[in-house]
Amino acid sequence: MALATRTGRRPSTTRTLWDSSVGKKSVMAVSGLVMLGYLVAHMLGNLKIFFGADEFNGYAHWLRTLGSPFLHHEWALWIVRVALLAAVVAHAVSAYQLSRRDIKARPVKYAHKRRRASYATRTMRWGGIILGLFIVWHLLDLTTLTVNERAWAGHPYENVLATFSTWYGNTIYIVAMAALGLHIRHGFWSAAQTLGAGNARRDRALKSLANTLALVLFAGFVSVPVAVMTGVVS
Ligand code: HEM
């Protein structure tokens, strides 16, 4: 409305939606679900490590030749990368703007009592920050190989083993996977509410689904460092 008065023009529907809290929450929900889809696929792909180096490295090679000969080498991978980057940016920007709004909306006269954000809100904010930092580390570790001391380009199986042969590699990944589990548990539930999937009858089923997804992803991802640490994968 304020925009319409200042410029004399009506804001577009997209602009009005983006300016509203419901619009930003919807962007968070949809981008979160896109990332969740990627995580399920990534976790399943990672489990190939239990079938040996050839199978895992072959899978990494297949990812790069996906869509060939119609698509050029790595094009499909780049399409996925661009879609994921868009989802991460949309998710982070709307989360940041919603939390600024929430802080501004707190009544000043209660400043001495400092009304605190709920436990779930604080867990989501800290979880989001931890996951953002983890993604940067993870890309430097296993994609660009910048921080992986024993990296061997084109050999992801050996690189994963190198990562999980250090105490800090295991610590970073396991802490991040715990943050991921908690983030998905609450995030999936919130997304379902925002997108209108919840109602009195379905709420219990949605909560169980959120818990199951969080647990399966946590266990699936963590099984890789645990398998390397215990010598099951070597
Ligand atoms: C123990 C847990 C994980 C392991 C062992 C793992 C393993 C890997 C490996 C080996 C690669 C490189 C693949 C290749 O170059 O072919 C990779 C890439 C990637 N991983 Fe993970 N990952 C884990 C968890 C995660 C999580 C939780 C996320 C997201 C929050 C994530 C997001 C990504 C992304 C975005 C890429 C880059 C894909 C690309 O553009 O090539 N990973 N991961």
Q: Major sheet: size, sense and barrel closure?
A: none
Beta fraction: under 5%
Order of helices and strands: HHHHHHHHH
> Total number of β-strand segments?
0
Q: Can you give the mean pLDDT?
A: 92
Which spans of ≥5 residues are poorly predicted at pLDDT below 50? Answer: none
- Write down the overall geometry: globular
- Structural Rg: 21 Å
The number of helical elements comes to 9
Structural class by secondary-structure content: mainly alpha
Helix content: over 70%
Oligomer: single chain
Bound molecules: protoporphyrin IX containing FE
Distance between the termini: 62 Å
Descriptive keywords:
9 helices; 234 residues; 0% strand
In short:
This protein has 234 residues and is mostly helical. It is 73% helix and 0% strand.
Task: Characterise the protein shown here.
There is one protein chain. The chain has helices spanning 2-7, 13-19, 21-46, 53-65, 75-104, 119-143, 156-163, 167-194, 203-230. It is an all-alpha fold and 234 residues long. 19% of the residues are buried. Bound molecules: protoporphyrin IX containing FE. Protoporphyrin IX containing FE binds next to helix 3, helix 4, helix 5, helix 6 and helix 7.
What's the topology here?
Layout: H1 2-7, H2 13-19, H3 21-46, H4 53-65, H5 75-104, H6 119-143, H7 156-163, H8 167-194, H9 203-230
The structure holds protoporphyrin IX containing FE.
Protoporphyrin IX containing FE binds next to α3, α4, α5, α6 and α7.
